[in-house]
Amino acid sequence: MSTTTSFLERMLQPVADAMPVEFARKLVSLRADDELMAQIEPLREKASRGSLSADEESEYKEFVDAVDVISILQAKARKVIAAHVSEA
Questions:
Q1: For residue 6, what pLDDT band results from cuts at 50, 70 and 90?
Q2: How far is CA 61 from the centre of its chain?
């Protein structure tokens, strides 16, 4: 785990602490739509080849950063759901 991810996990913990179960369920099912994936896929391919322009690299990094945050929130949401199930 990178230091940035660790910082994000710690900073986002209060969100998880206040997360309602119904919101957690919706967050866990969150996925990028087809239009976004169509926009990102060429950037992903160029990134793997190392041929992104500076603008493309910035755009792709923004996407990757967003995915990191969403992934952390989804992991926290799964814990909220699991805790709710074990309480029931």
A1: confident
A2: 13
- pLDDT of residue 9 exceeding 80, the answer is yes
Q: What is the pLDDT of residues 54-64, one digit of tens each?
A: 999 999 999 99
Q: How far apart are CA 38 and CA 77, in angstroms?
A: 27
Number of C-alpha atoms within 13 angstroms, CB side, residue 5? Answer: 10
Residue among 26, 21, 15 nearest 80 (CA): 21
Domain borders along the chain are: 3-87
Please report the DSSP string for the chain in residue order.
--HHHHHHHHHHHHHHHT--HHHHHHHHT----HHHHHHHHHHHHHHHHT---HHHHHHHHHHHHHHHHHHHHHHHHHHHHHHHHHH-
Contact 10, 67 (CB under 8 A): no
For the beta carbon of residue 29, count every other beta carbon within 10 angstroms: 9
